[in-house]
Specification:
The chain has 174 residues and is of the alpha/beta class. Helices cover 25% and strands 25% of the residues. The chain is built from 4 helices and 17 strands. Strands 3-6-11-14-16-17 form a 6-stranded mixed beta sheet. Helix 2 packs antiparallel against helix 3. The longest helix is centred in the first third of the chain and has 16 residues.
């Protein structure tokens, strides 16, 4: 179960209709500009600076965001990424979701030494454990334990931590 805070829609309209009652317009505009700049810059230290300084994201040391990564535009401060992780090309990290009858907000926690494959979508309220690998084009809609290899839509565990260790040992031993 994802950990999200739920807020009902009001006044007979869908929750997105009331967007600027949930998040200030100028915050969204600033975040959008910063994110668009970061999506096209090839300079990883600059992206990390922009994310930490202007979006208030927690970004670990030596973490790499590939081109076109899209952090949440409304609540980027709810995203935390550990040291030495890679967020693949065109990945979307959402900390909110607007639905017909409610909107939800939840922290996204990505551990250290995590690899997120290209074109992955991470939904709000999930945690990806240290050392996990997420295959490309996955929909991460639940927590991912440390050290596993997971992928798919919706995401499933492909190899457990024990199986990953066994595979690594086989590769090292030839």
């Amino acid at each position: 179960m994802r950990r999200t805070e739920r807020y009902p829609a009001r006044e007979g309209a869908n929750s997105l209709w009331h967007i600027y009652k949930t998040v200030p317009f100028f915050k969204v505009a600033k975040n959008f500009a910063v994110i668009q700049l970061s999506r096209y810059t090839p300079f990883i230290p600059m992206k990390n600076f922009l994310f930490r300084t202007f979006l208030k994201m927690e970004v670990g040391n030596k973490t790499s965001f590939a081109l076109m990564v899209m952090p949440d535009v409304m609540f980027p401060e709810r995203i935390k990424v550990g040291d030495n992780s890679i967020i693949g090309f065109n990945t979307t990290i959402l900390a909110h979701e607007y639905l017909i009858n409610e909107y939800r907000i939840g922290d996204v926690i990505i551990g250290k030494n995590v690899l997120i494959g290209a074109n992955t979508t991470i939904l709000p309220g999930v945690e990806i454990g240290d050392g996990a690998i997420i295959s490309a084009a996955s929909l991460v809609n639940r927590d991912i334990p440390p050290g596993v290899f997971a992928g798919g839509n919706p995401v499933k565990i492909i190899f457990t931590l024990e199986q990953m260790i066994e595979r690594q040992q086989k590769n090292e031993n030839g």
